[in-house]
Design a protein that fits this description.
single chain; globular; alpha+beta
Length: about 200
């Protein structure tokens, strides 16, 4: 089955829109999705930004919030503009990295992003993460301890370094082989490209 890498940043508005629907669309297309959490902070810092470009460029930010609100309404996804943006997504992303290995990563990411963008909860707080993990029948403190253990603590940094090497500059980003597709509105195009790659492979 062809595969597509889904580079996801848990503090990203447009990633929230994608995370809610990517699995269902990929199943219909018979495409495997590999969830790849990473952090945009170091990538933005390398570009000279100390915060989201949506904060740096006010007009762009105003457009983004209205655009996300419209799109969430269109696809039936709850949305509430967070009282703080962006929030620190690193603790949640470290847990997500472990979750991807353990098999519950997508569910954790989806629920965490709903807490951030539908419930205005601070996903950088341990009590919020523990509550979300509890909803998934997981032991929050134990999971967080494992995610920050010597074995797993560098996983997010390595993932971010790989994203940087690939030229990822925003989220969500989809990689189909060496082809990059950026943005929630490119999800369908990325899946189509993966299906095209499958047809080409079958014909060879």
């Amino acid at each position: 089955m062809p595969a597509m890498d889904f580079w996801c940043e848990l503090a990203s508005t447009y990633t929230y829109l994608t995370a809610s629907r990517i699995d269902a669309l990929a199943v219909r297309a018979n495409i495997e999705v590999r969830w790849r959490p990473f952090s945009l902070g170091p990538i933005f810092a390398a570009a000279g930004w100390q915060t989201s470009p949506f904060n740096v460029y006010a007009e762009k930010g105003r457009y983004m919030w209205r655009d996300v609100e419209r799109e969430a309404e269109r696809i039936g996804l709850p949305f509430r503009k967070p009282s703080e943006f962006p929030r620190n997504s690193v603790p949640a992303s470290k847990v997500a990295m472990l979750g991807v290995v353990r098999g519950w990563g997508p569910r954790f990411i989806q629920r965490t992003m709903r807490a951030e963008f539908a419930e205005d909860r601070d996903i950088g707080r341990t009590e919020v993460l523990d509550e979300i993990l509890g909803e998934l029948n997981l032991d929050g403190p134990a999971v967080r301890d494992e995610a920050t253990s010597a074995e797993h603590n560098g996983a997010l940094r390595r993932s971010t370094e790989e994203a940087t090497r690939l030229g990822v500059f925003g989220a969500p980003t989809f990689m189909v082989g060496e082809e990059m597709f950026w943005g929630n509105d490119r999800l369908a195009h990325a899946l189509e490209w993966a299906m095209r790659a499958r047809r080409s492979s079958s014909a060879a």
